[in-house]
Each structure stands twice: as C-alpha cells, then as structure tokens.
Amino acid sequence: MTLALPLPRARTLSPVLPVAAVVAVLALPVSPGGEGGAGPADALSALVVLFCAVRLLRERRRPLSRTSAVVLGLPVAGIALAALGASSPGAGLTGLGRYLQVFVLVPAAVLLLIRGRSDLRLLAWAFVGLAGWQGAVGVHQFVTGTGASYQGETIRAVGTFGPQDVMGMATVVSFGLVCAVGLALGRTAVRQRAVAAVAALALLVPLALSFSRGAWIATVVACSVQLALAGLRRALTVAAVAAAAGVVLVGGFGVGSAMLQERISSITQVGDAPDQSVTDRYTMWAAAVGMWREQPLTGVGLKGFPEHRDAHASLALSSGSDTDGAGSGFVRQPLLSPHNMYLLILSEQGLIGLLALAGGWLALLACGLRGWWAVRRAGPGLDCALVACGLLLWQLTDFMYADIGGPSTVLTAVVLGVVAWWALAGGRAVTAVPAGPACGGEARSR
Fold first, then answer.
1. At 235, phi and psi to the nearest 5?
2. How far apart are CA 156 and CA 140, in angstroms?
3. Which residues, in sequence order, are CB contacts of 433 under 8 Å at separation 6+?
C-alpha cells in the first residue's frame, strides 16, 4: 500500500513564481538612511538565476537560441572591457556584477522561466499589484504630509523607498500603469480588462504625486504608443477617458494642482530660469560628454564617473541634493551619476559599451514590434505585445532622465526579461517562423 502524495499538483506551479516573488519583495519598506547596496530583492534575484541554472541542468535543455544568446550576451564584451579600465579592481568587479545582473543574467533567467503568455500576464499583474500598494502608500504620504520633502513641504509621494530613492515609487507605479494599460487594451475577458482599466486610472494619482518629470514623460510616451498600437478607435476612447479623469482629479478635487502645474512647466525651463535640479542635470550631462571625448572608445571605466566628475563639470554644479522626510532625517546626497543612462554608459564604457547595450535594446524593440504585427488584428497575445513593447519604450525613454541605482533597479532587469521573452520567444512563436522552440523550449505560448 502506497501513500498518495499531492506531488503532481506541485508540478503545475509556474516556474516564473520566483520572479513574481522578486517583484513582491519590493513591497517591503527600505531601511531609513540606506544608500544603495544590495537589498532583499537583489539577493532574491540572484537565487532566481541559480534556480534557473539548476532547472536547466536537471532538464538538460539548451539554454538559449543563437539569437537570444547574441542579443542578451552582446553587452558582456563592453562591460568586461570597461571593468578592466576601472580605477581599482574593487570598483571594476562591483560594476561588472551590477551590470551583468541587470542587463544579462536576470533578464536571461526571466526569459527562460516564462513558459507562455499566461506567465507573462502573471508578471504583469504582479507589477500592477506592487504599483497599487506603493501608490497607496504614496497617496497617504501626500494627504498626511508624511512624504519626502518637496519645496519645503513633506508631501512628495515616495512609497516605502524613502527620500534617498525618490524615483523608486515613480518607477514602480509607472511599470504598473503601463502593464495595466496593455492588459486593458488586450483581448482577454471583459472583467479582466475592466479591472486593468480601473487600475490604470487609479495609478495616475500616485504617479502625479511623485513629482517625477522623467517618469511622467516616459509614461506619456509608452502609453501613447500602446494606444496607437491597439488601434485608432481605442486610442481615441481611452485618451478621452484619461483626459476626463485628469480634469476631475486635478481640476475638480485640486490634487496638488498648483504644484503639478509648476512642476510640468519646469520641464521646458531649460534656458530661461531652470531650477537647480535641472541645472545640475545638464551640468552632469556635459561632464559625461567631456569624459567620453577623452576616452571615446572605452570610456573612463566602470564606476569612474564620480572620480572624473569635478574635472569636467562647471561651477554651476551644486555639491549635492537635499533629501528629507518620509521617516528619514536631513541628508545631503552627492551627485555621483549623470542621471542619464546613455551618457553614463558613454562616459564609463565608451562607444563600444553604448553600441553593445543600446544595440541589444533596439533589437528587442524591433523583434517585439514584429510580434505585435503578427497579433495586431485577430491573433492571440495582443495584451502581451502591448505590455512588452510599452515596458521597453518606457525604460528606453526614462533612461534619458535616469540611470540604474537603488532598490527598484532589479525591476529593470525583470522588465528586460519580460520584453526578451516576447521579442525572442513569445512573439516568434506567434509568427510561426521557427521550426522548433525559439528559445530552448520556452516558446510554448498560451
């Protein structure tokens, strides 16, 4: 007589659940005063990579197709070369590990763990759920005056990330909003689309209260393209609803209307009367360009921007930015990056590194749009195409105003993995171009 154990049920669990756990861990509060370094989500992402490697060894599967290996492995050469040119071995190894984590290892693991469209939708809803939680905390901070300091008032919504990572909540909410818009514009059940649409409208509030100009611009670009890809009729309908919601929230209820208008108008105030944050940003951009001109091919080495900043920056650059509120005391944070991912790569890795990384991102965008073209009319997976393309467009646009750093950086790695699956496996399976699995068997789409 044998004892029947519920083992078959365990086998039905999706291997992408550990990736969803990485997203969920970011709902935990960040310790006050924390200044970078690996956090719980980073540690869990390393375990996800290990879990993926063990799973591949047990199943004896070919890890990646040639195309996937080239696209995801392209940045390794530039990163390794820049690590050799770092000012110290410690800085080189630290930068090498971070870049490989965010742009190579975690994206590859996510790609291999996603089995089909249902797994991609699971991760999309995980992003929406995390955005809802962080957004709710952010709105509470604005209403109760317990957020980060902004113009002398502790009203800036930062969620659980604290004032040292003011972009954290804005990034999370933006990812959730883009995912919600893609799910709402798909062809899934009506109730699911309705829930996604309501979530997207609700997330507009915390995104506005984050006062993050870069996140606003990136979200407008990504969602506009999503609407265009979904069809003209849907685009006009959703745009009208979003405009009406904006009028009600800002005009009717006065949700920070004066501060929002001032913040929006500051986007164009570059030459007339820019605020100090804008001045610092453009000064650091100029410094990054100066570093690149000295070492155009290989850059100054990983983690080299802070060391070479003062030699290339003008006197207009301030000594740092002030952070306060949201459970932390006053801190003067040094400006250690140009807040532009492309210029950071250009200054530290040169043209070789920029072409390798940006070339891979453009390849993912082209392949993702090819998958959208296959499902744009009646094929399955339109929501997956819109989510993947929207997330990549958001990230590529936001990289013009931000770079990697902080606890939310691990989400960038997860996003790139989601995009890579659609571009290199899910979208290719829809087009039925490859004769076999596009990426080691994970091209099975449902």
1. -60, -45
2. 10
3. none
- Please state the pTM of the whole predicted model: 0.88
Summarised one tens digit per residue, pLDDT across range 393-433 is 999 999 998 888 888 899 999 999 999 999 998 766 655 44
Calculate the alpha carbon distances from 313 to 284, 290, 296, 349, 365 in Å. Answer: 6, 9, 18, 19, 34
Q: What number of other Cβ atoms are within 10 A of residue 144's Cβ? A: 10
Contact 143, 112 (CB under 8 A): no
Which alpha helices (H) appear in 16-165, and where do they start and end? 17-25, 40-59, 66-84, 89-100, 106-113, 117-144
Give per-residue pLDDT as tens, 156-185. Answer: 888 999 887 888 999 999 999 999 999 999
For residue 114 the two structure tokens come to: 């996603």
- C-alpha distances in angstroms, 7 versus 10, 13, 54, 127? 5, 11, 19, 29
Q: Hey, is 6 helix, strand or coil?
A: coil
Give the span between the Cα atoms of 147 and 156, in whole angstroms: 5
Going from the C-alpha of 347 to that of each of 294, 321, 401, the distances in angstroms are 9, 22, 15
Specify the 3-state DSSP secondary structure of 239: helix
Of the candidates 127, 144, 93, 223, the one whose C-alpha atom is nearest the C-alpha of residue 415 is: 127
